[in-house]
Design brief:
The strands form 2 sheets. Strands 1, 2, 3, 4, 5 and 6 form a 6-stranded mixed sheet that branches. Strands 7-8 form a two-stranded antiparallel ribbon. The chain starts with 7 loop residues before the first strand and ends with a strand. It has one domain: Conserved Hypothetical Protein Mth637, Chain: A. It has 1 helix and 8 strands; from the N terminus they run E-E-E-E-H-E-E-E-E.
Length: about 120
């Protein structure tokens, strides 16, 4: 049985699929919130020669406290919209992200993620 949140779905026990919207060439790297039904991640790297893909794996691994080897880009290697598989993790791994609505956000439906 698959369960889901706004930006992720539980593929099977121990495997989570997340939708990510990447913003390359940002001033800072990190998770900035939700953009529609995707997790928005800002990256300093340009989208050249896989640099942004490598950085998104590093950012997610650090934020979620998992190994880089547990993260795989399964769709969107050359796109800003990516689908990423997290293996060997449970749904509560995403609890380190607290998602809240931003009042008066510039983009309708944009949410901000705050670290606990």
């Amino acid at each position: 049985m698959k369960s889901s949140g706004a930006f992720y779905s539980l593929e099977r026990p121990g495997t989570i699929i997340i939708k990510v919207k990447v913003e390359p060439r940002s001033s800072r790297s990190g998770i900035s919130g939700l953009y529609g039904e995707s997790l928005k991640v800002k990256l300093r790297s340009p989208p050249v020669e896989g640099k942004a893909n490598n950085e998104i794996i590093s950012v997610l691994a650090k934020k979620l406290g998992i190994k880089k080897s547990q993260i795989e880009i399964i769709s969107g290697r050359s796109s800003k919209n990516k689908i990423i598989r997290l293996t060997g993790v449970e749904e509560n791994t995403l609890e380190c992200l607290q998602v809240t609505r931003v009042q008066g956000a510039a983009v309708k439906g944009q949410e901000k993620i705050l670290a606990r």
